[in-house]
Design a protein that fits this description.
The chain is mainly alpha-helical. The chain has helices spanning about 1-35, 50-75, 80-105, 110-130, 140-165, 175-180, 185-205, 215-240, 240-260; strands spanning about 165-170, 170. α1 (about 1-35) runs antiparallel to α2 (about 50-75).
Length: about 260
């Protein structure tokens, strides 16, 4: 398990180093132009397409590795604090690097990977705070994953309103403005993943993993309450039927978790 975490961190370091080196080279080039050809500074900065593709591929590999680590941390007795710390640090570093690249040379694939890494980092941070170390059982770990996903649904619904201020008469002219169209899709994917985690929690509760209400069942119920808050925020932001349906499913999952956890 530690080998995969080291691989995840190594990929994050490589991606950040490539982006930093590319940025430093561009700054050096423009510094030289200031002395030799000042008029060239008025031209928009050009970034290597090959560098962007390499970073995107490495970041996508890191994202796949992180998802595998996150799932293994839920299903196996792994040192969850080490796992979550690696996801948080590596995910944030690579997400920042990819957003920086997207701001210089916009590409949908770059944005998609950056958003995925940021979501992974948020999940890792929440798991780091909430998991409770190696003693946490599968129900509590899966509950933390549900909470992490639910918080991210709320986050992307909230950030959509913030990024909407980056529009100029409805037209996107900044990286944040161009990302605005992606926010409902990201929130929808996260909500579907959260409902899948909810289904796993209900199965564990049915199998008798919950114990007394003061143990894992409370985590499961709390996770569903936070999921409803995230889905409610998403419905308020976008007012789409799909979020209405997901909110109804979330209500049903909360009722089921109450019935199973407090029996």
């Amino acid at each position: 398990m530690i080998v995969w975490e080291l691989f995840f961190i190594t990929l994050a370091v490589v991606v950040a180093a490539i982006v930093a080196r590319s940025g430093a080279a561009r700054i050096t080039q423009r510094y030289r132009l200031a002395w030799t050809d000042p008029d060239a500074l008025a031209l928009p900065a050009s970034w290597s397409a090959a560098t962007l593709r390499i970073c995107t591929v490495l970041a996508a590999l890191q994202l796949a590795c992180g998802l595998a680590i996150l799932w293994a941390g839920v299903t196996e007795p792994a040192p969850i604090r080490l796992t979550s710390g690696a996801l948080l640090a590596g995910g944030l570093a690579s997400a920042a690097a990819m957003f920086f690249q997207a701001g210089r040379r916009f590409a949908p694939s770059t944005v998609a990977v950056a958003v995925g890494l940021l979501a992974l980092a948020i999940a890792g941070g929440l798991l780091l705070v909430l998991a409770g170390g190696m003693s946490a059982g599968p129900l509590r770990r899966l509950s933390c994953l549900l909470i992490a996903l639910a918080v991210q649904v709320w986050f992307w619904a909230w950030i959509a309103g913030v990024w909407e201020q980056q529009l100029d008469r409805g037209a996107a002219w900044t990286t944040a403005g161009r990302l605005l169209a992606w926010t409902p899709r990201v929130a929808l994917i996260l909500a579907l993943l959260a409902l899948m985690a909810s289904g796993g929690l209900l199965y564990l509760l049915t199998a008798g993993y919950g114990g007394a209400p003061g143990h894992g069942a409370v985590w499961a119920i709390g996770g569903h309450v936070i999921l409803l808050a995230g889905l409610g925020r998403a419905l308020r932001t976008w007012r789409r039927r799909v979020f209405t349906g997901l909110l109804i499913l979330g209500c049903g999952a909360l009722i089921a978790s109450l019935a199973l956890g407090l029996r």
